[in-house]
Task: structure prediction
Amino acid sequence: MREVQWVKLSTDLFKNPKINYLRRLPEGDRLALIWVMLLTLAGRCNAGGAIFLTENTPYTPKMLADELGIREKVILSALSHFEQLDMIRQDSGYIILTGWEEQQNTEGLEKIREQNRLRKQKQRENQKLHTSRDSHAADIDIEREEDKEKEIKKESEEKTAAKKAKRFVPPTLDEVKDYCMTRKSTVDPVRFWEYFDTGGWVDSGGNPVRNWKQKLITWENHTKEKGNESNDTTGDNHDGHAEWNINYTFDARAL
Result:
């Protein structure tokens, strides 16, 4: 693949919840820097977000540490967090940035691929001038290579479409209020929404929230459990249900 000389970065990069979460971690600024460096490496490889030294030599953490000039321990931590946040995936030892095609200028990347295709076509024409037999064999190999590239591109597009379908979209405060009203929930929708929105919609383990309704139901169940405990020890409440804010502390984000 021919190298690209640039990659596209969003001006809202440092407003991204995942980047904000990474920057709050120990060595957080280094983790954010490593992410940008991985973007440039993926651009250099121009292989659908894959990162490698050569097409047959994937990067190891030690190789990345030497390449980027950052301690291997920090590289390992970064890769672990990136994979946990679904920013990368690893396939047969290769590091692949998820969502690469949708983040970058696909028209520019396609232009480079088209230039490669034209270059190969010209090579085929030159080969035909020398010998039809050798040219015929070369045509078959090149066509097979192009077919393989098309298959890889198709698989990448299908995976990207599947990830888009599964991508979590944070709810609005009104959506949380409506859901609480529908369920007649005891959970305070404003408190719930502000808690997770401020935290970037990740739980205490650093895992992105995938189903906010399930989180709210979990809050609701814990509210009921704590409410029952309060009723057992303090008697009936004036409104007939547990005042769950009294003597009630739990790590809500871990739910």
